[in-house]
Each structure stands twice: as C-alpha cells, then as structure tokens.
Amino acid sequence: MFADSIMEHFGALEDPRRDNRRHLLIDIVFITICAVICSGESWEDIEQFGHAKEGWLRRYLQLPHGIPSEDTFARVFAALSPAEFNERFLGWVRAVHPWGAQTINIDGKCLRGSGDTRRGKSAIHIVSAWARESGLTLGQVKVDEKSNEITAIPELLEMLDLRGSVVSIDAMGTQTKIAQKIVEGGADYVLALKGNQGTLNDDVALVFRDAGRNDFAGLQVSHDRQVEKDHGRLEVRECWATEELDWLACRKEWKGLRSVCMLRATRTVSGQSSTEDRLYISSLPAEAARLAQTIRSHWGIENSLHWTLDVAFREDESRKRKDNAPENLAVVRHIALNLLRSDKSLKRSIAGKRLRAGWDDAYLETVLSKAV
C-alpha cells in the first residue's frame, strides 16, 4: 500500500530526460526516498543502497534494467522540475497527513553546501512551513537568487490550507501584504517586529516601556509568566499583551490587527543574567499565555526542523550543487523526515530510526507505511 501511495503522488512526475530512459522515473524516485530514510546521503550511497536492497525493492518496483547508476540518480535529480516535485510533495502531505488547524511556523534556511564561491554560485535559501502540533513539514519554496523571503513567503502561503490555523513568521515576513494573505486564507497571525517596519517597532516599544514604568497602570494588559530551570540555567519568560491600539497610527494598514505584545526573556547562568525583549503584532486576542506559547513554538522550528536536518541528515554538509539537485534533495529530506517523525513505534532519535530502517526491512516498511 505504501508503494501504491508513493506511486500515486509521484508517479505522474514529468520525466525530464529526452533520451536514455532505461530506468523508470518512479523507480529512481522511490529508491532515493528509501535510501535517504536509511541514512543515504551521496549519489553513490543511493546506488549502493539499491544494490544491497535489490531483492526487497523488486517486491515493489519493476527495475527493468536493474539498479540505476549514481550518475543516473544525479542526472535525473539535477534535471527534475523542483516546482513540480514540490507540488507533488504538497499533494502527498495533504492526502496522507491532513493537518487541520495548527500553529504553522514559517522560517528560512540556507543550504550552505549548495553554494560554490569559485563558480560564483550562491547557496540556496529555502523557506519552509512547519506544523508544530504534528511536527511535519507542510511545504517549502526556494527563495529566488535576486530576491528574499518577502517574495517567497506569499508563494508558500498560497500553497497551504491555512483555515483555522495560527501562522507565525519572524520579522522578515512582517509585511502588510503577508498579514492580509494570512487573514484572507482564514488564519490568524503572530508576526515579529524589528526595525524593518518603519516606526511600528519603535512605537510599540515606546508604549510598553512607558506603561512598564507605571506597572502597566495606564494600559489594560493581559500578563503571563513562566519559569524554567534546566541544568543550572534559570529562564523567566513574561508576556504582556494589549488590545488598546488607538495610539497606533498605522493600525488600519494591518488587516485583522487586534493586539500587540512584548515577550521578555531573562536568563541566568552561573550567576550572570541577561534580558531580551521581543515585540509582536497579532490578529489574535490579547491573551498573553496563548501568544507566549505561539511565539515559543516558532523558536521550535530551529530545533525540530532546521537542527534535525543539519544534524540527523547533515544537510549543511551536502555538496549537491548541480542545477536543481539541491532543491529536489531538500524535498526528499522533508519526505523522509515526515515519515520518520510519523512513526511512533520506535523510541529513538531520527538518526537512530534512520539506522534501524537501513538494517531492518520490516522497520523500513513500517516507516513507509506512514505514506498511506
């Protein structure tokens, strides 16, 4: 059934090869997904995985001319349309893991190994959407070399079913058009502020600073306080939120804007303390506890997605640079990570699950069954 599911969603990919189609495209894609699940990283790894598992693979694939060579894998993924491949990935995620209303964190990541300074090739930058509750990647978009995340984020939002969700984005994506697209998509937003929104950041900072001097006596706020101790580190997080926005001159420019909030994090390590204030605007009510939780979940994309891709999949070390290969392999890693995350039968890290899948065909089939 998992083979049928993968065939259904990726079998209609347009074959970019004009000639030399000895190996079926879906066989190449299926072997690559399985190899990456099982710790394969290089094209040579993927070919060797195919040879080692050829008997198992023939249960699901035709393999009319045996296992493709590493050059064939490299050539196909360099030529494959990343837009179409990503579209198939999104369709698969919607069908297999309908996410419903969740907290959707959107953030960018640089694939450092994809750049080549000697040839003047910049590293690829990918913007991903990650669902906190399910731990799944919902989609990704490559940032155009001559642009930035501001243009890529609306394209990614257009791909997603946002209804009932809360979308969090860092300061780069805090733009009036992006807020409008989120609201029109049926979702709420929590957007970080910095100095790139004109006077908005300064105005919000001033209001909270003045109100704080009087213990917020002149401003109706909701307040939340959380204390966390861990290995000699003490962190106190406080959040203040208000819906009193008459003072905000530009409030009508932000569709759905309902509240602003300030999150203050005070960390104490070895007797040394540091404090950082972060400011946000939101279409949610001024419920400090909920806003604080949403903000903190956004930080989780670094650990739960980007860090995992770098550590468990060694993404930053990947030297796939030719044509579309870096972007397409990024999609394959997201497919593999979604499948591994969806399996709850083995209580091991992602790296541990990858090793087990490579050793144990039955466990690999368990992981792949999450594609159904």
Topology:
Elements lengths: L1 H9 L14 H13 L5 H10 L1 H4 L12 H10 L2 H15 L6 E9 L12 E8 L4 E7 L6 H11 L6 E4 L6 H9 L3 E6 L6 H14 L8 E9 L2 E10 L16 E11 L2 E11 L5 H24 L13 H18 L7 H10 L1 H8 L4
Parallel strand pairs: 1-4, 4-5
Antiparallel strand pairs: 1-2, 2-3, 5-9, 6-7, 7-8, 8-9
Helix pairs in contact: 1-6, 2-3, 2-11, 3-5, 5-11, 6-11, 7-8, 12-13
Feature tags:
elongated; 372 residues; single chain; alpha+beta; 20% strand
Structural class: alpha+beta
Radius of gyration over all CA atoms, rounded = 23 Å
Largest sheet: 9 strands, mixed
User: How many beta strands in the DSSP annotation?
Assistant: 9
In N-to-C order, the SSE pattern is HHHHHHEEEHEHEHEEEEHHHH
Question: What oligomeric assembly is this protein in?
Answer: single chain
Helix content: 40-55%
Give the terminus-to-terminus CA distance: 7 Å
How do the strands line up in the largest sheet? 3-2-1-4-5-9-8-7-6
